[in-house]
Structure formats: C-alpha cells, structure tokens
Write a structure and sequence with these properties.
Order of helices and strands: HHHEEHEEEEHHEHHH
Structural class: alpha+beta
Number of strands: 7
Distance between the termini: 34 Å
Largest sheet: 3 strands, antiparallel
Helix content: 25-40%
Strand content: 5-15%
Oligomer: single chain
C-alpha cells in the first residue's frame, strides 16, 4: 500500500489543475442532462502521463480473483458503490429505502444506448480488475485493491450497457475500445489517468494503442 500512496502526494496539485481544465470538455453526443464520472486529465496531460508509465510485458493472471478486490462496498447509509454510480451517471434516478435504483435512465457512452432499467446497466471498471492485477495490483494489499475497485474520485467507474461491459471483459485498449469512435479520446484519457494515479504498468501494444488515440485528440 505504501508504494501506491508514496507516488500520490506530489501529484495532487497537477491532477487537480488538469482535471479542472478537462472539466470544460463535454462528452460528445451524450445528453446534456446526464452526469458523468470525474473528468479525466486533458489529452496533453494524458500523453505526458503515458510517457512516464512503466512499460513491461503483462504479468500473469495466476492467483487472480475478483474477491481480492472487494467492490461495491458501502459508501454511506444503505448505498454501496454501484448504487452511488447509478445515481451519479443516470438522469432522474429514484432510489428506494435500500438505495436501489427503481427508476431513471442511463445513457451508455460506449455504444450510445439509453436504458430505463438499472438491471440493463453494469458499472464498468475502466481499468478492469484482472488487467490491474496483471499490471501491478497483484503486489498490493487487499485494502489498496478495495480502494481501487471502488474509486469514485478518479474516472475509473462508469455506468454502461451491461452486455457491452461483458464483451469488454478484462481487455486493454489494444484489444478493445468502445464502438463509438467519438468516445475513444475520452476513454483513453480515463484509462491513462487511472493507470498513472495507481502506478500501474502498460505493455507495449497497450501503450502504442493509447498513443495513437491520444495523438488524434
């Protein structure tokens, strides 16, 4: 855990400034009424971040289990992380006494679909848990992995169409990108912002794919 937090402190001011600039960037084609995850750093900052990430072959999945990344933990009252994101990313979301979303609508920026039932929506980890494991999270404490899996401060969690999230699986940007090409730049910025903050490595193909997208932003 100390290895992760040791790199965070010097970056606080940079991340805050970059995020403020990025807030001016809206999600292309998304309904204006919809909320969204915290804005990622700008494309220029993302290119700088990407150049500083450790590049190495992806590690093994040996020992990986989703249970090692405790997720959808309680955030407040009866609300867990999933319900918090559903409320944040949806429009006119109504929750019951257990914090479950019983109505509302959710626009999925990955594919441009709008859903009216929370059961049709998954909460995607931008950097998948298994990908994080292979990129350095295998050496983290369970507490740090829990913080990563429930990170509401960085652009790491987003409500999207469930089967699109399932099709993505644990693939990185060299293997999978959202079908909406207009979202590629934003997605790459989210990915790099998350990997940089959490000090995760990238493999060469992943870095190349991200560079290609970010250079076109």
């Amino acid at each position: 855990m100390s290895g992760v937090y040791a790199r965070r402190l010097p970056r606080t001011a940079v991340l805050a400034a970059s995020a403020a600039l990025a807030c001016a960037t809206t999600l292309l084609s998304a309904p204006a009424a919809n909320a969204a995850p915290p804005a990622p750093v700008s494309a220029a900052a993302a290119r700088t971040y990407l150049s500083s990430l450790t590049v190495k072959a992806e590690g093994s999945s040996t020992g990986y289990s989703r249970d090692l990344f405790p997720h959808w933990i309680t955030q407040s009252g009866a609300c867990n992380t999933r319900e918090v994101v559903l409320k944040r990313d949806g429009s006119n979301v109504v929750q019951d006494s257990s914090c479950a979303a019983v109505s509302g609508s959710w626009y999925s920026p990955y594919d441009g679909a709008t859903w009216y039932a929370a059961s049709d929506v998954d909460i995607d980890h931008i950097v998948p848990l298994a990908e994080a494991w292979r990129s350095g999270a295998n050496s983290w404490s369970t507490s740090t992995r829990q913080s990563f899996a429930n990170d509401l401060t960085r652009p790491q969690l987003i409500a999207v169409t469930d089967n699109v999230n399932q099709a993505k699986g644990d693939q990185d940007p060299a293997e999978w990108m959202p079908s909406r090409t207009s979202y590629h730049c934003y997605y790459a910025r989210m990915w790099v912002h998350t990997k940089y903050y959490w000090n995760l490595s990238v493999d060469s193909a992943e870095k190349s794919a991200l560079q290609s997208v970010l250079n076109g932003c």
